[in-house]
Amino acid sequence: MVVHLTMLGSKILTAELTDGTMHALCALKKEGDSTFAAFRFVLALLVANLLITDTLIAVANAADNSISIIVPEDVLKDYQQFLASRDPHGIRDYSGTGTRRDVVEVLLAVQALRLGGITEQPTFLTADSYTRLIREIQDGRALLVGTTLWRDDVALVDKDVYVSQSLIRNGEFEAGLFTSTSNTRALNVRSLNELQQLSAVSNKDWSTDWQTLQALALKELFSTVEWESMVRMVDGKRADVLLAPFPTTADLTLVVGKITLRPIPGLKIGLSGSRHLIVAKHHPKGSLAFIALEKGLTILRDKSHIEQAYRDSGFLNQQTRNWTQLKPPAQDLSRKTKTGIEQ
User: Fold this and answer.
1) Whole-number Å distance between alpha carbons of 270 and 255
2) pLDDT tens digits, residue range 27-65?
3) Distance CA 239, CA 219 (A)
């Protein structure tokens, strides 16, 4: 490290902070007390800076070693509302304010880690997109994604992540087509042919959702990153429908903030594939956390808590059991989005 100190007009003092620092100080002592005192002052500042830097690095390393769970920001907000200061490990009724599929998955992940032997309290991080969630785990900056991901998406980063057993098994994922409460044209749809006259919004990074909507051959598809942006687009009728799991409300309305959306009655969409949690292989506690997670999930599955969580949250919904499940024709993945970009 080199220090440049300007003093006494145009005179420049340069000294290397190496093992020979004391020799430099001794030499400067001969040049005058003021020069020596100034150098000592600068040296003291540098030492203080190094101490602060070491402290920050230690804090960062401690954070890297923490049980960090990363989730979308809106999911964390609803999870905290659902938890309402309760001990997550004592919860067996997964219904209540804020509950939904993503929220109970966070709770299941927390419970599984404890059942698997990890007693450390987790810390929560947030990401602003589905892609960012995966990247933070892939790079080892977070330990665990707290909400499930499609297996097909996870396959792209298999070498960097541990993949849990499935929480949502193939064939279990059903979603409603939600629209504005005032969109009468959408609410009156009763067949695939009628649905194909509508537009939909989703996130093209949600590969299974996106490909399902493409295969349904709707009139137009829009892509946006944030869930709340999708809700606002449908509420403002800039898109007719969005896909979402059914909620627990008696009338199946989906409430997001101040916006209420209704499902098209009698229709649901089946999405193929399984969903999993992923753990970072490049995190210091990655292998330990994965072993604990798998052990805990097995216990939760054996005790039927996973199924109960999905039922209580409305994801496995008895009200829609006899609704017509629309099956898309053979997929045509060359259709264009609103932006005209080939998918």
Assistant:
1) 22
2) 444 445 555 555 555 445 544 554 444 443 333 443 457
3) 10
Spell 248-278 as b/e; 16+ CB within 10 A means b.
Answer: beeebebebeeebbbbbeebbbebebbbbbb
Range of the domain at 228: 174-271
Residues 166 and 135 in one domain: yes
The verdict on 161 and 201 lying in the same domain is no
Q: Are residues 181 and 258 in the same domain?
A: yes
Helix H or strand E encompassing 274: none
> Helix (H) and strand (E) counts for the chain?
12, 17
Amino acid code (one letter) for 231: V
CB 266 within 8 A of CB 323: yes
- Asked whether residue 110 falls in the same domain as residue 42, the answer is no
Measured distance CA(72)–CA(82) in Å, rounded? 15
H/E segment holding residue 24: helix 21-31
Domain count of the fold of the chain: 3
pLDDT in tens, 245-301: 999 889 999 999 999 999 999 999 999 999 999 999 999 999 999 999 999 999 999
Model pTM score: 0.73
How far apart, in whole angstroms, are the C-alpha atoms of residue 268 and residue 327? 9
The packing angle between helices 33-64 and 21-31, to 10°, is 150
| Tokens representing residue 235 in the block | 């509420």
- Assigned token pair, 256: 């997001």
Residue with token string 């799991």: 245
* 86 shares its domain with 205: no
Single out the residue of 267, 331, 256 nearest to residue 75, CA to CA: 256
Paired strand residues for 126? 71
